[in-house]
């Protein structure tokens, strides 16, 4: 049984868990990670051997419009979790979701980045993640906690929120193919990123807590592609020419953005035995297939609910 922490217990009925067939395998508890007493209460219930902290204000764009909230939650929640672990049960292993945004704009001569590369974050999100990263390192060194940071590059899935650009692209392309949309507006198409498939990256997280000693590890595909390439491949795989449907608008550009970033996953290969084998084209094909299947499932559920008077 997996315990999931949610801010509001009402959100535990999310259809994503039904779709995955795991709703009965997850026990949900309500807690505010900004309040350490909430975390202590959860830990004192017992039964936990590992904690994966994926909670955060995770939108880079939103961090510019909500800087204080991003900094407060993304930093304080991690400090609360680690301090609560130290007090209640320091034997529980802890995984912190760090981010490639911590590296900031890196000179091309210093790419790809690895675990020893310097952090120079430019976004408020990246700054908050770098702070949480060093807090985790501090607790590991000072108190001997088994606490690790997975420095993950962009990892995509059908469950990305709609404000994330890859989700916008895949969703729009599928809807345009079905005749349910006619255009897509994006910002800067020339940024270059290291994209991977989220399920594979989650396996790497799990492997990090299987090691004898806690270490921070970069998890990435090891390659880079432009957002324009992402759009072009996604539309092409659906038999569409993206140039007929995609527009750009400066209002969708970030105040500060990373031009190009990609990572070196050598340490993950060596220590975890983890290797990313999905090509860029196959990643997009999987995302399209996942999006199509999920939309079809949602439509079926809606029809069933309507037939039974539930919607």
Note down, in words, how this protein is organized.
The protein is of the alpha/beta class. 43% of the residues lie in helices and 14% in strands. The protein is built from 10 helices and 12 strands. It has helices at residues 15-20, 36-44, 60-65, 67-88, 124-143, 165-177, 198-208, 227-237, 266-272, 280-307; strands spanning 2-6, 26-30, 50-53, 93-99, 147-152, 155-156, 184-186, 192-193, 196-197, 217-219, 225-226, 246-248. A 4-stranded parallel sheet has the order 3-4-5-10, sandwiched between helices. Strands 1-2 form a two-stranded parallel sheet. Helix 1 (15-20) links the parallel strand 1 (2-6) and strand 2. The two termini are 31 Å apart.
Under CATH, the homologous superfamily reads NAD(P)-binding Rossmann-like Domain
Oligomer: single chain
Q: How much helicity do the residues have?
A: 40-55%
Radius of gyration of CA atoms, rounded to a whole number: 20 Å
- Main-sheet strand order equals 3-4-5-10
Strand content: 5-15%
Q: Judging from the principal axes of the Cα atoms, what is the shape?
A: globular
Biggest sheet character: 4 strands, parallel
Question: Under the CATH scheme, which class?
Answer: Alpha Beta
**Broad structural category:** alpha/beta
The count of β-strands is: 12
N-to-C series of helices and strands: EHEHEHHEHEEHEEEHEEHEHH
Poorly predicted parts = none
Count of individual domains: 1
The number of helical elements comes to 10
């Amino acid at each position: 049984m997996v315990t999931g922490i949610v801010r509001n217990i009402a959100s535990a009925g999310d259809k994503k868990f039904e779709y995955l067939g795991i709703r009965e395998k997850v026990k949900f508890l309500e807690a505010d990670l900004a309040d350490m007493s909430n975390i202590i209460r959860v830990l004192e219930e017992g039964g936990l051997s590992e904690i994966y902290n994926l909670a955060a204000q995770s939108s880079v764009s939103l961090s510019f419009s909500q800087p204080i909230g991003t900094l407060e939650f993304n930093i304080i929640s991690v400090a609360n979790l680690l301090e609560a672990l130290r007090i209640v049960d320091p034997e529980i292993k802890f995984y912190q979701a760090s981010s490639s945004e911590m590296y900031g704009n890196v000179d091309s001569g210093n790419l790809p980045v690895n675990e020893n590369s310097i952090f120079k974050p430019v976004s408020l999100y990246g700054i908050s993640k770098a702070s949480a990263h060093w807090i985790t390192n501090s607790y590991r060194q000072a108190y001997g906690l088994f606490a690790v940071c997975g420095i993950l590059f962009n990892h995509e899935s059908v469950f990305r929120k709609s404000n994330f650009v890859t989700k916008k692209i895949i969703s729009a392309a599928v809807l345009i193919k079905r005749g349910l949309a006619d255009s897509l507006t994006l910002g800067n198409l020339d940024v270059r990123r290291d994209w991977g498939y989220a399920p594979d990256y989650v396996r790497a997280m799990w492997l990090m807590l299987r090691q004898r000693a806690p270490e921070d590890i970069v998890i990435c595909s090891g390659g880079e592609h432009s957002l324009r390439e992402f759009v072009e491949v996604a539309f092409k795989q659906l038999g569409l020419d993206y140039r007929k449907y995609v527009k750009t608008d400066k209002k969708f550009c970030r105040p500060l953005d990373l031009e190009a970033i990609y990572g070196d996953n050598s340490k993950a290969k060596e220590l975890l035995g983890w290797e990313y084998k999905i090509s860029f084209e196959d990643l997009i094909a999987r995302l399209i297939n996942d999006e199509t299947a999920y939309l079809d499932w949602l439509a079926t559920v809606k029809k069933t609910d309507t037939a039974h008077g539930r919607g």
